[in-house]
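Batch manifest line 248
LIGAND: uridine-5'-diphosphate
JOB: complex structure
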Amino acid sequence: MPRQPKYRRIVLKISGEALAGAAGFGIDPIVVDSIARQIKDVQQLGVQVAVVVGGGNIWRGQSGSQKGMDRATADYMGMLATVINALALMDALEKHGVVVRVQTAIEMKEVAEPFIRRRAITHLEKGRVVIFAAGNGNPYFSTDTTAALRAAEIEADVMLKATKEAGVYDMDPRTHPEAKKLDEIHYIDVLKENLRVMDATATSLCMDNNIPIVVFNLNTYGNILKVVLGEPIGTYVGGDNRAERDPE
Ligand code: UDP
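JOB STATUS: finished
ARTIFACT:
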């Protein structure tokens, strides 16, 4: 029996760090290739895939401003870093025969399309993978917030937040070995307990727009597909209603 995806349209958030692999900075082509293959597997199920890439493997605005740079300038540098990552992912996807469009929130027409919401939706409907780059075009925001915003704009069913951890824990697993991974949690509790999922702006944007978030480990090959097939991978962040998770 063919496997039925749980979601029709997804936004996958990939941090810059994830593209860096073990080095922790720059771009590891082997890691990018692995992510591209996993995206292709999901796309071949008929799922519409939009990706938001971060830039932390190259530059983070906050670190620049901590070293004395103007914050907005440092943030624009961060947004440009995400475009570099987007092109690397585009290249890897195209090598696997996936049709891709990169859309940037800061216009650079020689490199990519500008972000046009309706056009992005058309691409998705035609089975193209859309990569959203340059964040949302504004300093003082993150690519997590961008992913939440784009998910709302394109009416995605879910936001998949790829991380290095298995999901959301009740305590910081790096400092508390006894920390337990949660299978499910309400947005409000993530905000109240200040759990390390993503920034509060991104979480509240998802909450306000009823977009569930699945936090999962990207380092395990095949996890994106498993999440899309509804397997209980990672942590599901959502509202009260369990029916939301299991519509049948
Ligand atoms: N950024 C921004 N506005 C946005 C998105 C990103 O100014 O809408 C900048 C910000 O400086 C950030 C950097 O781009 O530090 C890289 O993005 P992010 O830190 O979200 O990347 P990730 O942590 O996912 O690799």
